[in-house]
Amino acid sequence: MFWSVAADIPMLLAFGPWADWDEVKFYKLYYYCYVLPHSLWMLFLVPARWRLLYALHIIMDVPSHTGEWSVKPLTPVLDWPVPGFYDAWRV
Ligand SMILES: [Zn+2]
Fold it and tell me: What pTM was computed for the model?
């Protein structure tokens, strides 16, 4: 269970759940706590038995994050955001 949400934990620990998310994306810490943990390269750091859970988190985040929150799954090799097709945070 931990590994299915592990990619989001650095962001929550760094900024807390009540952060001003419109402002957070301008901080350098945003890159290390959001962009890098949502990179598929992080799978090499995850224990082998939990990689599928971690990868599923990233795969689910790709279509549900748009605009400046788009996931960059190949960062830091390719800084290419994959635009999602809906924004789960705006209902
Ligand atoms: Zn996430």
Answer: 0.85
Q: What is the mean pLDDT of residues 56-77?
A: 92
Q: Domain ranges in the chain? A: 2-69
Ligand 1 centre distance from Cα of residue 4 (Å): 9
Distance 20 CA to ligand 1 centre (A): 17
56 alpha carbon – ligand 1 mean position (Å): 10
Q: How close is the Cα of 57 to the center of ligand 1, in Å?
A: 6
* Measured CA distances, 59 to 50, 54, 66, 81 (Å): 15, 9, 13, 13
